[in-house]
């Protein structure tokens, strides 16, 4: 309870910058709405008392005035309710946007190892469903709770002459409500967490039918029934849990309703037997009871919602505590590579695994050198590069950049000097030019940097055939968008890396999807771009290895050979074996002709 309150208050403090005059106006209106129904009750009592007198005497002046006041208060209440609903809508979207932005900012900075954890994904899914209730709804429930207490207190004062046992009954009903609903919300959270992994899998499978990239495979492998049956099992598991829970909940709520009705009946009997009645008192009691019931319901409702929020809120604060990539002021700002990169006795395993995927790596890369890293699938090439990029930093040993450990650098300043094409690069639903310059927005189609990047990446020819050239929107699921071929996308990825014009360039399989003629042009462009730059190229296409200064051969997470193309070929190395096995297809094909 103490922890829940702590989280609720932390959240309110976090939302404080959004407390504009609209929020204060909302609170003032709520305060008025706590008072006005009670004034209405008093007026009702007066109407009840004035009624017999007016009828007897035939004088309706006072009665009419009271009725007009009553109608005026009613109209005012309706206007205030409508005003608050309008304010609520505006504030709601404002607060939602604010919190969502906080989460987006956080998630874009957390360590990449966290993004790969299943429990983090489950937490994120829970958060995306519950986040909208953390903003203005939280404040609203808080204020509504306070308003209901204020309203009930005033009402109890107005009805102070009514028998004390009535108050005891009201307290009992409220307590029962709070107790049962509290239990129900805890169980709901448990079920939600229990089912979130299966929900996520079911959601992923549902998405396969509309996934543009996989739609063809789903059809060609006739996966429809296979996916549907897998989805159905998961969906049924989740639904079964939900239905069982809902049934229990209905039973509980039904019983609560019956108990409440019985207690209300007892309350009325007490009123009839133990209080002296005038028409005014009777009207006051019946209207008051109705109002009390509604307000008590509002009180429990806002309390429950606060309870619910406080159950999910820790998850929000836990996410905000996720470890980020270090951005501390004492870290060194990287100003560019002066000497080179040294990897010393480095071993690494992914945070979700016990297996070392890199073992005892020792490697020196001098400034201006071009290195190709080769090796069979799963030998650790990409993992090594990800560590060099600082995406994973829980490795053993050291990565030293210009005599300073990579841990000592501010990661963002370091990455500003690196241009990278990863195996899984983004295909953003934006224009061609935006896909190339991304956040370093250029100055349009005639930007010389853009021209150079597209020329070196061999993209110019196909871009010139696009309907709106550089402004063509990519991704056909959006209006006016179109798609590129795999190779064309890869050229855009390369142009993106070239546009950045950084002094360190890392390319992971830059020509995997490129046709042989284009590959030749790409190599020429790559070599022109990489002059005076330090470069690491990961590749299975060994042709480029002839042009680099150094080839690093990896196997089973270890470096097994280092040397130039000529040296490794002459030594009859593992590299020679790989090179010959590729060459044989071309040589044999020539012989067969
Ligand atoms: N996120 C991850 N979590 C756990 N293990 C991983 C992860 N990514 C890769 N691995 C494992 O690390 C090993 C090395 O993978 P890596 O991607 O570095 O190989 P690679 O040499 O680049 O392969 P390829 O040539 O196929 O791209 C593989 O056995 C793979 O299963």
From TrEMBL:
The keyword Nucleotide-binding applies. Its main location: membrane. Keywords: ATP-binding, Membrane, Nucleotide-binding, Transmembrane, Transmembrane helix. It comes from the Bacteria. Residues 341-581 form the ABC transporter domain. One of its GO terms (molecular function) is ATPase-coupled lipid transmembrane transporter activity. SUPFAM superfamilies: ABC transporter transmembrane region, P-loop containing nucleoside triphosphate hydrolases. The keyword NAD does not apply. SMART domains: AAA (SM00382). It is found in: Cell membrane. The chain crosses the membrane at residues 21-43, 63-83, 134-156, 162-181, 265-285. This is ABC transporter ATP-binding protein. PANTHER family: ATP-BINDING CASSETTE SUB-FAMILY B, HAEMOLYSIN SECRETION ATP-BINDING PROTEIN. CDD domains: ABCC_MRP_Like. GO terms for cellular component: plasma membrane. Residues 47-308 form the ABC transmembrane type-1 domain. Pfam families: ABC_tran. It is a multi-pass membrane protein.
């Amino acid at each position: 309870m103490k922890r829940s309150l702590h989280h609720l208050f932390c959240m309110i403090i976090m939302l404080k910058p959004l407390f504009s005059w609209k929020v204060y106006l909302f609170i003032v209106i709520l305060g008025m709405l706590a008072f006005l129904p009670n004034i209405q009750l008093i007026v009702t009592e007066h109407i009840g008392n004035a009624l017999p007198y007016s009828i007897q005497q035939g004088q309706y002046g006072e009665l009419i005035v009271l009725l007009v006041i009553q109608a005026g208060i009613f109209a005012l209440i309706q206007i205030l309710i409508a005003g608050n609903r309008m304010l609520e809508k505006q504030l709601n979207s404002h607060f939602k946007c604010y919190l969502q932005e906080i989460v987006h900012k956080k998630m874009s900075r957390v360590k990449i190892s966290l993004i790969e954890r299943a429990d983090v994904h489950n937490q994120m899914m829970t958060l995306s469903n519950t986040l909208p209730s953390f903003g203005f709804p939280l404040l609203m429930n808080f204020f509504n709770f306070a308003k209901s207490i204020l309203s009930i207190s005033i009402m109890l004062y107005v009805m102070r002459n009514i028998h004390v046992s009535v108050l005891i009954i009201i307290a009992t009903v409220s307590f029962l409500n709070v107790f049962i609903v509290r239990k129900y919300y805890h169980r709901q959270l448990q079920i939600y967490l229990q089912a979130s992994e299966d929900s996520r899998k079911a959601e992923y499978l549902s998405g396969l039918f509309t996934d543009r990239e996989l739609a063809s495979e789903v059809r060609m492998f006739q996966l429809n029934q296979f996916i549907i049956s897998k989805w159905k099992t998961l969906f049924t598991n989740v639904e079964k849990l939900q239905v069982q829970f809902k049934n229990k909940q209905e039973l509980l709520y039904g019983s609560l309703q019956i108990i409440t009705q019985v207690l209300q009946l007892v309350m009325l009997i007490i009123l009839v037997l133990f209080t002296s009645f005038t028409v005014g008192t009777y009207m006051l009691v019946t209207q008051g009871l109705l109002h009390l019931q509604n307000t008590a319901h509002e009180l429990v409702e806002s309390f429950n919602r606060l309870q619910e929020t406080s159950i999910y809120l820790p998850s929000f604060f836990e996410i905000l505590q996720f470890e980020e990539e270090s951005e501390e002021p004492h870290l060194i700002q990287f100003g560019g590579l002066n000497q080179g990169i040294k990897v010393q006795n480095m071993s690494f395993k992914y945070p979700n695994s016990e297996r070392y995927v890199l073992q005892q790596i020792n490697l020196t890369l001098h400034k201006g050198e071009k290195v190709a890293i080769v090796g069979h699938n799963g030998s650790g090439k990409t993992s090594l590069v990800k560590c060099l990029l600082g995406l994973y930093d829980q490795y053993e040993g050291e990565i030293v950049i210009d005599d300073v450990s990579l841990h000592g650098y501010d990661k963002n300043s370091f990455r500003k000097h690196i241009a990278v094409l990863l195996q899984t690069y983004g295909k953003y639903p934006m224009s061609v030019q935006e896909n190339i310059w991304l956040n370093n927005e250029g100055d349009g189609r005639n930007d010389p940097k853009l021209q150079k990047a597209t020329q070196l990446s061999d993209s110019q020819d196909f871009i010139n055939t696009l309907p709106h050239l550089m402004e063509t929107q990519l991704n056909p699921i959006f209006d006016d968008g179109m798609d590129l071929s795999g190779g064309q996308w890869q050229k855009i990825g390369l142009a993106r890396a070239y546009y950045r014009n950084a002094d360190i360039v890392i390319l992971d399989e830059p020509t995997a999807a490129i046709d042989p003629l284009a590959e030749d042009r790409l190599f020429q462009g790559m070599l022109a771009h990489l002059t005076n730059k330090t470069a690491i190229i990961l590749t299975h296409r060994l042709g480029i290895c002839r042009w680099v200064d150094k080839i690093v051969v990896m196997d089973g997470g270890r470096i097994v050979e280092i040397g130039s193309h000529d040296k490794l070929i002459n030594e009859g190395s593992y590299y020679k074996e790989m090179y010959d096995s590729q060459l044989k297809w071309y040589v044999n094909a020539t012989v067969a002709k």
